[in-house]
C-alpha cells in the first residue's frame, strides 16, 4: 500500500513513537504539580516550548500548546475577536480557509460580528489589493491561511503582513497547519501576530497543536479552569505528546529544504503524467511560487470522487477527496467553487499529498494506477 | 546590501582600560580572548591584534550578527564596521563614498578625518581630508561639512599596503573584561534585583560566583530551579563557567522564627546569610560580596538596616543598585534576559516568614543579644557551609552538545 494522504495525517516517525512511549512511561506526573516529579514533567514541556520557539526564531513565552490545529485556530480567532470586540467587530478571512477557521467565522457572524470573506482568483490566491479595500477602522482581525489544505495554493503572507504593518489595530492570524515543515515561515519578519500549527501533519502524534501569540498581545482563552499555558489553555498538559511533537517539528523543519526539492520533483513528475489524461483537470497551480510542493489536486468532472478514491484503494493507493475534516459531506468543495465557480469541478476533486518517504517510482506507480482507473471508469461517466 | 560590504570590525577598549598603563597589554589579551569566545558561533570570524588595535576579520559573516554578539562583551566600549581597500587615492575615495552611504543614521553634516600612518603615501592627511570630502560632496550636494559637530565622522586610516575606511560607531557594553578586577560572591535570591546586580558587577570586571539560600520544604523545588535558570542566564556573560552555591537555610531560619523577636527576623537572616557567604568567600578566595540592595526599597534595605546587617562581615559589600530606581533596574533585567524568570511566582526564603511590620531601624545591640541567645547559631552556620551544594554551570562546547543525555534524545 502506498499512502498519499499526508495533508490529512502523516505516519509518525519511529523516533517520535519511541519518545512518546518513553516519556509516557516515566513522566506520568501532572506537570502542574509542585512535587519534583511534576516539576520534571513541567521542565520537559518548557524544553519543548523552547525548541519550538527556536525553530521559528521567536521567544518561548510566545507559544501555547493546544489539542490540535482546530483548537489552535479557534483559540487564535475567538481569542482576538473576544478580546478586542470593544475596539471593533469587523473580521476578514478568505473563502478558502479550512473548516476550523471558516466555520468559526460563520459562528462569529451569528454572534454579531461582521465578516468579509475575500475571494480568490482561479489559482486560489487572494489579492493584497482586495484585502486593502476590505480593511476598515473596525477591522480587528485578518485571518489568512498560508497553504491551502485542498489545492496547496500559497497565499502571499509576507506581502499581506507588510500591508498590515500599516494597520496597528488589526491583528494578523495565519493558519500554517499545512505549511510548517514544508515551506519557510518568517513569523516575525512577516509581521504575524498569531500562527497555528499541528503536530500530526509533520509526522508527530495526534492531539497536539501549537499557537504563536506575539509578545505583548493579550487574547481571551477558550478553556478556563486552570493556570496551564499562561492561563490561556486550561487542562492538564499532555507531556508525552508535547515532547514527541517538539521532536517531530524539529525533524520536519530541519529537513524541509531537502524534502522541498524532492516533493517539487515528484509534483512535476505527477503533473506531467496526468496532463495527457484528457478527463482530468488540474486544480493546483503549475507555478511553483504559488503552489506548495507536496500537494497535487485535480478533478474528474462528471465522476464522483469517492468512486476514484475507492478504485485507487483497491489497487493499493491511498488518496483523498477534499479535506478530511469536511470529506464526509456530499457538497461540492467550497474551495474549488471559490476558485472556479464550476460546480462539476468542485464536486469531483481528488487530492494527492506527498510525504518524505515517497520516491519517483512510487509516483510512477500512482500515475499508472490513475491512468488505469480513469480508463476503467470512463464508461460510467455521468454528465451532472 | 549595506551590511555585507564590510571586511572587518575595529574594537575600542574602554578609557578605563587605557589608563591602566602597563596592564594595558594584559587587558587587551584578556579582551581578545573574550571576544573570541563570544564569536565562537561565527566559524570564519578571526580576532587579530595588530597596530596596537583589536580587529575582527569578518570573512563573509554579516556584520549585524557579529555586532549583536559583540554587544555582550564587557570591556568593549564601542566598535565600528570597517571596509578595507588599497592604499590608493581613487580606491579610498570610492570606498569612502560606499561606506558613507551604508551609514544608516541621519546625516546632513559630516567631516572626514584621515590618519596617514604610512608616511610614504603621496598626499598628507590635510590634503586627504579635502580630497575625500570633496568626492563625497560631489555625489551628495545637499550635504554640508561641519568640522566641530558633525553628525557623521568618516574616518580613513592609511597604512602601508591597505587603507581602512569606517564611519559607524556601535556602542558596546563598556566596563572591564570579565574577571579583570578580581572575584566576588553574589547573593542570588531569584528576584528581579540580584541578577541585575550580578550583571553590573561582571560588567565592572568582577568574576562572580553565586550564593543561594533555600529553606526546603518551606521553599519549593521550583524556586531552586528558577535560580538555576537565572544563573544559566548570567553564565552567558562569564568566561564560560559559573558556580552556584546552594545553601540549606531551613534550620537557621526556623531557629530565628522561634527566637520570639518577630520584627528582627529579616535582620537576623540577612546577617546569617552574610556570615555564611563570608565563609564561602574565604574558601573560594573571593574578596567582596555583591548584593541587589537598593536604598530604601524594603525594610532590610534602609540605611539603618544596611548598617546593622553589614557590620557582621569585614568583606566589602558591593551594592551596584544602591542608588538606582526600580524602573531602571527592571529595564536592565529585561535587556539581559532575566526579568521573565525573576517574576515567576515562587516563594524564596527572603519572602518566607516575613513579619507584618519588620523593623526599619534595628538596634545593633539588641540584634547581637538575640543572636547570642540562639543555641548553636555558630555551629548551624558552619554546618550550613559544610552542607552547601555547589553546582558548576558551564557553557556547552559544540562537541559536548553532540553528546546525548538520556533526556536529550527525546528532543
Any overview of this molecule?
The complex is a heterodimer of chains A (384) and B (411). Chain A is an alpha/beta fold. Chain A has 2 domains: 130 residues, Alpha-Beta Complex (Aspartate Aminotransferase, domain 1); 237 residues, Aspartate Aminotransferase, domain 2. Chain A contains 11 helices and 12 strands. In chain A, the strands form 3 sheets. A 7-stranded mixed beta sheet of chain A has the order 2-8-7-6-5-3-4, with helices on both faces. Chain A has a 3-stranded antiparallel beta sheet with strand order 9-10-12. Chain A is globular and about 65 Å long. Chain B folds into 2 domains: 169 residues, VC0802-like (2-Layer Sandwich); 214 residues, Rossmann fold. In chain B, the strands form 2 sheets. In chain B, strands 1, 2, 3, 4, 5, 6, 7, 8 and 9 form a 9-stranded mixed beta sheet that branches. In chain B, strands 14-13-10-11-12-15 form a 6-stranded mixed beta sheet. In chain B, strand 5, helix 5 and strand 6 form a beta-alpha-beta unit. Chain B is elongated, with a radius of gyration of 27 Å. In chain B, 39% of the residues are buried. The model of chain B has no long low-confidence stretch (mean pLDDT 88). At the A-B interface, helix 1, helix 2 and helix 7 of A face helix 7 of B.
Structure summarized in a few sentences:
Chain A is an alpha/beta fold and 384 residues long. Chain A contains eleven helices and twelve strands. Chain B has helices spanning 15-18, 24-38, 63-70, 89-102, 125-139, 193-203, 221-235, 250-257, 265-284, 303-310, 326-335, 339-342, 364-373, 377-386, 398-402, and strands spanning 8-13, 46-50, 53-57, 76-85, 109-116, 144-145, 152-159, 162-166, 170-171, 183-187, 207-214, 241-248, 289-290, 317-318, 389-394.
Amino acid at each position: 500500500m502506498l499512502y498519499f494522504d499526508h495533508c490529512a495525517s502523516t505516519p509518525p516517525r519511529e523516533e517520535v513513537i519511541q519518545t512518546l512511549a518513553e516519556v509516557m512511561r516515566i513522566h506520568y506526573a501532572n506537570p502542574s504539580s509542585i512535587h519534583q516529579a511534576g516539576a520534571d514533567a513541567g521542565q520537559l514541556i518548557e524544553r519543548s516550548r523552547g525548541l519550538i520557539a527556536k525553530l521559528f526564531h521567536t521567544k518561548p513565552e510566545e507559544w501555547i500548546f493546544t489539542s490540535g490545529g482546530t483548537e489552535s485556530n479557534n483559540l487564535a480567532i475567538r481569542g482576538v475577536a473576544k478580546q478586542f470586540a470593544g475596539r471593533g467587530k469587523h473580521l476578514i478571512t478568505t473563502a478558502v480557509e479550512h473548516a476550523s477557521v471558516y466555520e468559526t467565522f460563520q459562528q462569529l457572524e451569528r454572534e454579531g460580528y461582521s465578516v468579509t470573506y475575500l475571494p480568490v482568483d482561479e489559482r486560489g490566491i487572494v489579492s493584497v489589493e482586495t484585502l486593502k479595500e476590505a480593511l476598515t477602522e473596525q477591522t480587528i482581525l485578518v485571518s489568512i491561511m498560508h497553504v491551502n489544505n485542498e489545492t496547496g495554493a500559497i497565499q502571499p503572507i509576507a506581502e499581506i503582513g507588510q500591508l498590515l504593518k500599516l494597520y496597528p489595530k488589526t491583528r494578523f492570524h495565519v493558519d500554517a497547519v499545512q505549511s510548517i515543515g514544508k515551506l519557510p515561515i518568517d513569523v516575525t519578519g512577516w509581521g504575524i501576530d498569531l500562527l497555528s500549527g499541528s503536530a500530526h501533519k509533520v509526522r508527530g502524534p495526534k492531539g497536539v497543536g501549537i499557537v504563536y501569540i506575539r509578545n505583548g498581545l493579550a487574547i481571551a482563552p477558550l478553556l478556563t479552569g486552570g493556570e496551564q499555558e499562561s492561563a490561556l489553555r486550561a487542562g492538564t498538559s499532555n507531556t508525552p505528546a508535547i515532547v514527541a511533537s517538539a521532536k517531530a517539528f524539529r525533524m520536519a523543519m530541519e529537513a524541509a529544504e531537502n524534502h522541498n526539492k524532492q516533493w517539487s520533483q515528484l509534483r512535476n513528475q505527477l503533473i506531467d503524467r496526468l496532463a495527457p489524461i484528457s478527463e482530468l483537470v488540474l486544480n493546483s497551480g503549475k507555478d511553483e511560487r504559488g503552489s506548495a510542493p507536496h500537494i497535487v489536486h485535480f478533478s474528474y468532472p462528471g465522476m464522483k470522487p469517492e468512486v476514484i478514491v475507492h478504485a485507487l484503494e483497491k489497487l493499493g493507493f491511498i488518496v483523498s477527496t477534499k479535506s478530511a475534516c469536511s470529506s464526509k459531506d456530499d457538497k461540492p468543495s467550497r474551495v474549488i467553487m471559490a476558485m472556479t465557480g464550476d460546480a462539476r469541478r468542485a464536486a469531483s476533486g481528488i487530492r494527492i499529498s506527498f510525504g518524505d518517504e515517497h520516491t519517483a517510482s512510487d509516483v510512477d506507480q500512482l500515475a499508472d494506477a490513475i491512468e488505469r482507473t480513469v480508463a476503467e471508469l470512463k464508461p460510467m461517466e455521468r454528465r451532472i | 546590501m549595506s551590511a555585507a560590504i564590510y571586511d572587518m570590525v575595529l574594537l575600542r577598549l574602554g578609557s578605563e582600560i587605557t589608563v591602566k598603563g602597563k596592564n594595558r597589554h594584559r587587558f587587551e589579551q584578556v579582551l581578545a580572548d573574550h571576544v573570541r569566545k563570544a564569536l565562537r558561533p561565527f566559524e570564519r570570524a578571526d580576532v587579530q591584534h595588530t597596530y596596537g588595535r583589536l580587529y575582527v576579520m569578518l570573512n563573509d559573516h554579516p556584520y549585524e550578527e557579529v555586532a549583536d554578539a559583540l554587544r555582550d562583551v564587557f570591556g568593549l566600549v564601542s566598535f565600528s564596521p570597517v571596509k578595507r581597500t588599497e592604499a590608493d587615492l581613487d580606491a579610498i575615495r570610492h570606498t569612502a563614498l560606499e561606506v558613507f552611504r551604508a551609514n544608516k543614521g541621519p546625516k546632513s553634516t559630516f567631516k572626514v578625518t584621515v590618519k596617514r600612518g604610512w608616511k610614504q603615501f603621496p598626499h598628507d592627511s590635510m590634503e586627504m581630508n579635502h580630497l575625500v570630502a570633496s568626492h563625497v560632496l560631489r555625489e551628495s550636494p545637499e550635504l554640508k561639512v561641519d568640522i566641530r559637530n558633525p553628525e557623521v565622522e568618516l574616518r580613513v586610516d592609511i597604512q602601508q599596503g591597505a587603507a581602512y575606511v569606517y564611519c559607524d560607531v556601535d556602542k558596546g557594553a563598556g566596563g572591564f573584561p570579565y574577571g579583570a578586577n578580581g572575584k566576588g560572591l553574589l547573593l542570588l535570591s531569584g528576584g528581579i534585583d540580584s541578577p541585575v546586580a550580578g550583571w553590573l558587577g561582571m560588567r565592572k570586571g568582577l568574576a562572580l560566583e553565586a550564593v543561594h539560600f533555600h529553606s526546603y520544604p518551606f521553599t519549593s523545588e521550583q524556586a531552586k530551579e528558577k535560580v538555576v535558570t537565572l544563573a544559566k542566564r548570567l553564565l552567558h556573560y562569564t568566561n564560560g563557567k559559573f558556580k552556584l552555591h546552594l545553601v540549606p537555610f531551613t534550620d537557621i531560619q526556623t531557629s530565628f522564627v522561634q527566637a520570639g523577636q518577630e520584627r528582627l527576623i529579616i535582620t537576623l537572616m540577612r546577617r546569617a546569610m552574610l556570615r555564611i557567604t563570608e565563609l564561602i568567600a574565604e574558601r573560594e578566595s573571593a574578596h567582596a560580596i555583591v548584593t541587589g540592595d537598593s536604598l530604601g526599597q524594603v525594610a532590610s534595605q534602609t540605611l539603618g538596616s544596611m548598617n546593622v546587617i553589614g557590620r557582621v562581615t569585614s568583606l566589602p559589600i558591593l551594592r551596584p543598585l544602591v542608588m538606582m530606581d526600580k524602573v531602571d533596574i527592571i529595564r536592565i533585567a529585561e535587556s539581559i534576559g532575566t526579568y521573565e524568570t525573576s517574576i515567576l511566582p515562587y516563594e524564596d526564603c527572603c519572602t518566607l516568614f516575613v513579619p507584618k511590620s519588620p523593623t526599619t531601624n534595628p538596634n545593633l545591640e539588641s540584634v547581637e543579644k538575640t543572636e547570642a541567645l540562639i543555641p548553636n547559631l555558630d555551629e548551624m552556620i558552619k554546618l550550613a557551609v559544610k552542607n552547601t551544594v555547589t553546582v558548576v554551570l558551564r557553557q556547552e562546547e559544540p562537541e559536548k552538545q553532540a553528546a546525548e543525555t538520556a533526556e536529550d534524545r527525546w528532543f
